[in-house]
Write a structure and sequence with these properties.
Distance between the termini: 43 Å
Number of strands: 5
Structural class: alpha+beta
Shape: elongated
Helix content: 25-40%
Number of helices: 2
Strand order of the largest sheet: 2-1-5
Strand content: 25-35%
Length: 115
């Protein structure tokens, strides 16, 4: 299974900021790699996108990982935030196993009948 998250912020169709991470194969992640990943995720801070005068963000709010704060005091601005979560798995073997079990169950029921 692979997993990733990405977040982008656009103002007036111009990319302002992008953050994210991707884990290639979760099943092959060693304990040391998992610890390193946890440390990296914990050290990530939030981000603030500010447009116009008079914007202010409490610095403690930026300690939340992956938090995005958008402040805008300008008129007629097109603000867009996209968060994409990517998860993929090779579930074909699970489906094959389920199908095999279903076939066996059907064959046993057909052979012995329901009593």
């Amino acid at each position: 299974m692979s997993f990733g998250i990405s977040r982008v912020v656009y103002v007036n169709d111009q990319l302002i900021t992008a953050t994210g991470f991707q884990i290639g194969d979760v099943s092959r992640l060693s304990p040391a790699q998992a610890n390193l990943l946890a440390q990296q995720l914990a050290s990530m801070t939030g981000q603030a996108v500010q447009r116009g005068p008079g914007n202010r963000v409490d610095p403690t709010a930026l300690t939340v990982p992956f938090a995005t704060y958008i402040q805008n005091t300008l008129n007629n601005q097109n603000l867009r935030v996209e968060t994409v979560i990517q998860a993929a798995t090779n579930g074909m073997s699970v489906l094959k196993d389920l199908n095999f079990q279903s076939v066996i169950n059907d064959a046993l029921i057909g052979a012995f009948g329901i009593r």
